[in-house]
Amino acid sequence: MKIAVLSSGGVDSSVVLKLLQQQGHDVTAFYLKIWLEDELSFLGDCPWEEDLSYLRQICETHHIPLEIIPLQKEYFDEVVSYALKEIRAGRTPNSDLMCNSKVKFGKFYERISDDYELVASGHYADKEVVDGIHYLRKTKDSFKDQTYFLAHLSQQQLQRAIFPLGPYLKSEVRALAEQFDLPNKLRRDSQGVCFLGKIKYSDFVKYHLGERPGDLINADTGQKVGTHQGYWFYTIGQRKGIELSGGPWYVVRKDIPTNTVYISNTYHEEDKHRDNFDVENLHWITAAPTPAQLANLQVKVRHGEKLYDCVLSDLQQSPDMPYTATTTNDPTPPLCALRFALSASLAHVQISGTDQGLASGQFAVFYSENLCLGAGTIV
Question: What is the CATH number of domain 2-179?
Fold first, then answer.
């Protein structure tokens, strides 16, 4: 098949190139230019030259065509603007999740020829097709699993996507890089927001939003305990950057109109349970979850291995709304299915534990067994 491979110069996408080439596919490496030139001029360096250097070596050595696609404007319009809007509103954005749905599996699709039957990436995810429906599945490596960042893909986007690293552990991918003798086989994985490179996130925020002094208030006593340079530098649950004695201190609330940040050093005490939240703009990859999936629902509130069992309740539906079985053998579902309308766009989530880092703007990603069903934005 003719396959376009999203290639960053990192180990994972480079191994994907070689795997697909060995399988006999006609592959082309595509490097997306998304770095922000204004920020690079003022704030620091982006590793794009190093990325491209590695990628060029791999493509030349293994006779793989390489194309560079400029997408800075599209990235700014679709991802950076979203991030800045969320930060101004006092919420916590997830730029990587939006980058995948809006750019890598969105605008990029529009920029390449329809001759490319599939688009491959180095994400740790898996996929299966049942009766023409494409399902996103968790990968073999639960620690590296990146389905959280793919939860906003549409069915149409997923149909054209493939994730060759689904069957592999990260250690196995590293071993393949050694076996293929790739020049980046010892290169460390990149961290942080992809469009910033080596630029500090706080410097990026300061560049766009500036500074505005405000009060740091002890949420437990109501007393002013210090000052800050703008609520947009803080997220709920944050500890780093609050340099006050008597800590550790955590951000617990932000008052946007008054530019006030409330902090507490009793954030993790047992009486302060954070075990439920609301989500809006629910997005399902295939269709709304089935009653069986609702009965076995889990949620991630950030990338990582941690999953909570959860109950999803529709805030726009009466709790006693009757359930209608879809088949004669369909058992009576538990409360979660009774209370969730398949068309709901606003819902309440009750989790099986407590999480001290729940922040407005973050994505809650829903799972049933190994399937990633979709996501909603925490209100």
Answer: 3.40.50.620
Mind giving me the DSSP string for 313-327? Answer: EETTS-TTPPP--SS
Q: Which helix (H) or strand (E) holds 109?
A: helix 108-111
Report domain extents, the chain: 2-179, 211-264, 276-378
90: helix, strand or coil: coil
| pLDDT value at 332 more than 50 | no
Query: Is CATH 2.30.30.280 correct for 211-264?
Result: yes
The stretches of 210-313 forming alpha helices (DSSP H) are 291-294
Q: Which residues are catalytic?
A: 99, 194
pLDDT(285) > 80: yes
> Tell me: the pLDDT tens digits for 255-281?
999 999 999 988 766 556 689 999 999
Question: CA torsion sign, 316 to 319 to 283 to 145?
Answer: positive
Binning pLDDT at 50, 70 and 90, where does residue 325 land? very low
* CB-CB contact of 297 with 339 (8 Å): no
pTM of the model: 0.87
Report which of 86, 55, 109 is spatially closest to residue 379, judged by C-alpha positions: 86
- Rounded to 5°, angle at Cα 145 from 309 and 304: 55
pLDDT tens per residue across span 41-98: 555 555 577 888 999 999 999 999 999 999 989 999 999 999 999 999 999 999 999 9
272 neighbors 284 (Cβ within 8 angstroms): no
**Tokens in use for 361?**
């703007």
CATH 2.40.30.10 fits 276-378, yes or no: yes
The span from the CA of 322 to the CA of 286, in Å, is 24
